[in-house]
Sequence to fold (221 residues):
Amino acid sequence: MRGKLIVFEGIEGSGKTTQIQYLRQWLEHTLVNGRLGNGPTGVIVTRQPGGTTMGQQIRQVLLQPSTGMESLTSTSELLLYAADRAQHVERILLPALETGHLVLCDRYTASTVAYQGYGRKLDLGLINTLNTIATQGLTSDLTLWIKLDVKQGLGRMAARGQADRIEQAGIEFHRRVHAGFAAQAQQQEGFIAVDGSPTETVVAEQIQAIVSTYLQQWYAP
Ligand code: T5A
Fold:
């Protein structure tokens, strides 16, 4: 059976990385206890940018604060995210899905729409075309948008220390990004908002409830 792609999206500090770890543990426990019957062969956690060896180098260029080299243009930024994605889809996602894995991916195409489309104001039609090329048409089976107030997300990142290049963009940029995720949640089926403001364990319980419903649809005997 083909695997399934579950994507986590959201603004900076929304808690995606934290929640992916909670979901991975819960899924592995569920699999070990055989509650998914004829279900996935395993769980793989990965991310964009940086889910491949080449992607890690692209990630460095994308996220390092722009000191010492000329600043990255918005178009270069867009193309670098697309290159990272093309490599990641072909080398990691497609093989994992073909061998029946459940893949948990920290960010995917919706981030490019939100950050480069709404945030940087690049052409959305062009972004959609680039996303289709980079993904070979692979779309997520479920996207969990961890929805959090922009100030709260940036506050969490500030508490953690030095900000990367994109985290350093102003609050108006991040508000546009948030609006970009909201628009996609309205327009797309299987793009589900999760309240990211309660404690980590409460957010994790919301996610488990949503994913349970999908697992039953996907793997019901
Ligand atoms: N990008 C990416 C684009 O512009 N275009 C694209 O196409 C793609 C794919 C990626 C950057 O690239 C941009 C978006 C990003 O700017 P990244 O380092 O991967 O860079 O950045 P993020 O994905 O935003 O990862 P972060 O680590 O910055 O945020 P997370 O993963 O959402 O948050 P997390 O889990 O690390 O938590 C952040 C802090 O909050 C605390 C955690 O302990 C941590 O300290 N926290 C909570 N605190 C209170 N209550 C909760 N419920 C909490 N959950 C987590």
